[in-house]
Amino acid sequence: MNRTANAVWNGSLKDGSGTISTQSGVLNDTQYSFKTRFADGIGTNPEELIGAAHAGCYAMALSLILANHGMTPETIRSNAVVTLEQKDGGFAITKIHLTVSAKVPGATSENFLAAATEAKENCPVSQVLKAEITMDATLEA
Fold it and tell me: pTM for the full model?
């Protein structure tokens, strides 16, 4: 299974802007810029999108793990804080902090924490930083 997204950027880093679109159409030419990433511009940014993906993936993984242990969650609320820091003359995503609260009938604090930890370690987005990254590059004339 492959899912696609694309971005178009025009201009310099600080003065330029771009758009991001997804295969599903949920994002369709959604604006992003230096200001949306480093200030308070209108639009989105890569870190926000990574946070949304991680929070969503994590909640689904936790639901599956709980089900595998015979528990059905009524509600899972997850939040991901993505930290972008200046590092070695550039920028790096240095950490992601997940916060989760859930209403799970029949769960104990111990088995909920075990399931939450398993989801943190094994959801596909948690694993993404370990993924192989390949690339094709073409310079247009």
Answer: 0.89
Backbone angles phi, psi at 95, to 5 degrees: -170, 160
Question: Using CA atoms, how far apart are residues 51 and 125, in angstroms rounded to an integer?
Answer: 10
Q: Which of 23, 10, 11, 21 is nearest to 44 (CA)?
A: 21
Q: Nearest CA to 65 among 119, 125, 120?
A: 119
**Average confidence score pLDDT of the chain:** 91
- Measured distance CA(136)–CA(36) in Å, rounded: 28
- CB-side neighbour CA atoms (13 Å) of 113: 3
pLDDT at res. 40: 86
The residue assigned the tokens 């398993």 is 118
Please count the other Cβ atoms lying within 10 Å of the Cβ belonging to residue 28.
10
The structure tokens listed for 26 are 């949920």
The vertex-32 CA angle with 30 and 38, nearest 5°, equals 150
**What is the token pair recorded at 92?**
């790096």
Contacts of 12 by beta carbon, 8 Å cutoff, 6+ apart: none
